[in-house]
Amino acid sequence: MNAADVRHILDCIGEMFPDAHCELLHSNAFELTIAVLLSAQCTDATVNKVTVDLFQKYKTPEDYVSVPLEELEQDIRRIGLFRSKAKHIQKMCMILIEEYGGDIPSEHDKLVLLPGIGRKTANVVVSNAFGVPAIAVDTHVERVSKRLGLAGWNDTVLEVEKKLMKRIPKEEWTLTHHRLIFFGRYHCKAQNPQCQICPLLDVCREGKKRMKRSQVRKDREA
């Protein structure tokens, strides 16, 4: 894919979703980290329903470690994998208290060492909480990047991230991350992408295939 095609994609999704942003509700870096940890294999909408009450009850790392694990599990039981996530939260909070004075570290290499915090979560935290350019590859970003040819069909999540970082100007990384998520969540969905009205159909490998199959079906039915 050449630079002109990349620019075309960035401009199109920018026009479609100019106000794309992190939809996880939070008021500080600590709350954002907890929310992103909870969001693994779970929708942002479900996480927000849980954290409305969770963030009222727990304000600091000390609050999370002061309750029995079973109590924290009950507080997040609507979240998928709530038992393992509760353990990760308490272990993470202990480390924050013992090593970082209760604060979330702003360095990516320190974040990924925390329990329950992978590369994607760390990228979300550093970019949204600390203003460090980053591209977090979630299921939407991965799907859209591969469909549009920004990455290869068989690329790993890390390979997708590296290709996006190489092709997208660094100052646009964070905003593009949000726009790709919105594009995948609300337009280029996994099951029913809106190919017929997509402004990026001309550069979309998946869209062209789907439209061609659709036309073949119509021709057979005619």
TrEMBL record:
Classification via InterPro entries: DNA_glycosylase, Endonuclease-III-like_CS2, Endonuclease3_FeS-loop_motif, HhH-GPD_domain, HhH_base_excis_C, Nth
Gene3D superfamilies with a match to the protein in the record: Helix-hairpin-Helix base-excision DNA repair enzymes (C-terminal) (1.10.1670.10), Hypothetical protein, domain 2 (1.10.340.30)
Known catalytic reactions: 2'-deoxyribonucleotide-(2'-deoxyribose 5'-phosphate)-2'-deoxyribonucleotide-DNA = a 3'-end 2'-deoxyribonucleotide-(2,3-dehydro-2,3-deoxyribose 5'-phosphate)-DNA + a 5'-end 5'-phospho-2'-deoxyribonucleoside-DNA + H(+)
SUPFAM superfamilies for this protein: DNA-glycosylase (SSF48150)
Binding of [4Fe-4S] cluster, residues: C188, C195, C198, C204
PROSITE patterns listed in its UniProt record: ENDONUCLEASE_III_2
Assigned keywords, A-Z: 4Fe-4S, DNA damage, DNA repair, DNA-binding, Endonuclease, Glycosidase, Hydrolase, Iron, Iron-sulfur, Lyase, Metal-binding, Nuclease
Domain of life: Bacteria
Boundaries of every HhH-GPD domain copy: 38-186
Family classification: Belongs to the Nth/MutY family.
This protein's name: Endonuclease III
Gene name as annotated: nth
